[in-house]
Amino acid sequence: MLLKSVTFVLLAVSFAFPQSVTIPDTPSGHTLRAWLEAFNSADPARIQAYVSKYEPMQQANQMMEFRQQTGGFQLLSIDKSDRLHIDFRVKEEASPTNAVGSLEVKDADPAVVVSFSLRAIPAGGTATYADVAERIGAPRAVRAVAQACAANPLAVAIPCHRVVRQDGALSGYRWGVARKRLLLEREAAS
Question: Is residue 149 flagged as an active site residue?
């Protein structure tokens, strides 16, 4: 009985105080960290310094406007990472919207951003498994996207309920299609 109580308390505490995500010690990881720190600071000078160093073709004022819209980002997970590429998930601070990001850098000192994408499926919206596969740069990975959504242990935090079949039908959701439908209906009504 005591062991069950301790286990429950430990689980409750771990969910109440989420662990921080470890960003890899790679050129792509360093660049992601630099972007998050500059972007979340909302400091025009820090954002300009980031842009000058890592994304010289980017406009700092556009990044500031985007920052004002989102309120910054909380890093939820690193999904895939290697030396020059990293896939990640973030949540907007100013809304319940989550986004999937992909960052690729050129091997240089400092690493220079070759491509950076951040795609969100807003609350009330949907995307197909094929759309998500295309957005992450792997158009043939439709099944992998479906499997990742089905395995997602964070029901609403990572909004896999917003991903649907090509024909728009609801399918395979870890917590059941009825719950998926309910979540989508609630979001559409808000």
Answer: no
pTM given for the model: 0.62
What was the pLDDT predicted at 1? 44
Q: Which residues of 151-188 are buried (b: 16+ CB within 10 A; e: fewer)?
A: ebeeeeebbbbbbbeeeeebeebeeeeeebeebbeebe
Residue given tokens 């070759």 in the structure block: 114
Nearest to 145 by CA among 132, 158, 154: 132
Q: Which two tokens stand for residue 133?
A: 């596969």
Give Dmax (Cα) for the chain.
61
CB contact at 8 A, 2 and 57: no
The strand ranges marked E within the chain are 73-82, 85-92, 98-106, 112-120, 127-128, 163-164
Residues 148 and 144: their CA atoms lie apart, in Å, by: 6
Give the domains, in start order, of the chain with CATH numbers: 19-120 (3.10.450.280), 126-190 (1.10.10.10)
Mean pLDDT by 10 residues, the chain (190 residues): 36 45 95 96 96 91 87 92 94 83 91 86 80 77 84 74 89 85 86
Active-site residue identified among 160, 164, 183, 184: 160
Instruction: Name the token pair of 110.
Output: 């400092």
Going by the DSSP 8-state scheme, the letter that residue 61 receives in this structure is: H
